[in-house]
Design brief:
By secondary structure, the protein is mainly β.
């Protein structure tokens, strides 16, 4: 139970980051990076051997092509900061997640979709991950 409280406390602390800090635009003429890593910190205590990663994603509109998906090596908690996204796991129909709402992926879940729900409207998500130290953020399906 302590591990869950620690995880939830870290997620809450990450959500307190000022949006202005997170929403900095790329330098003029530079292509935006996606995902954009905002922070990475090693954990200690019962979560020794893990690190937290905070990312900013700018999902593009869905292409209509099937997504083979990928997996993450730890739990993923996402917050939609702008717009609305289509979020799908395990080839289930995507759910619409509007600004101000969250989504969650349990460890190892097949992530099959994250796209802006509207072609003409931007979307931005903040994503908090707990992963083993040094692990890649994703692995193929």
């Amino acid at each position: 139970m302590q591990d869950r409280r620690t995880f939830l406390g870290l997620a809450a602390a990450a959500s307190l980051l000022p949006i202005d800090l997170v929403a900095q635009a790329p330098a003029q003429g530079a292509a935006p990076r996606d995902p954009r890593e905002l922070a990475r910190h090693a954990l200690s205590g019962p979560l020794e051997g893990f690190e937290i990663v905070l990312l900013q994603l700018t999902p593009q509109a869905a292409s209509g092509n099937p997504n083979p998906g990928h997996r993450h090596p730890g739990p993923v908690l996402g917050y939609i900061a702008e717009g609305e996204v289509l979020f799908g796991i395990n080839h289930q129909p995507p759910q619409v997640v509007p600004a101000g709402r969250t989504f969650f992926e349990p460890t190892g879940t097949l992530h099959t979709g994250l796209a802006s729900s509207k072609a003409d409207a931007p979307a931005r998500a903040l994503v908090f991950m707990v992963i083993p130290k040094g692990a890649p953020l994703t692995s193929p399906a």
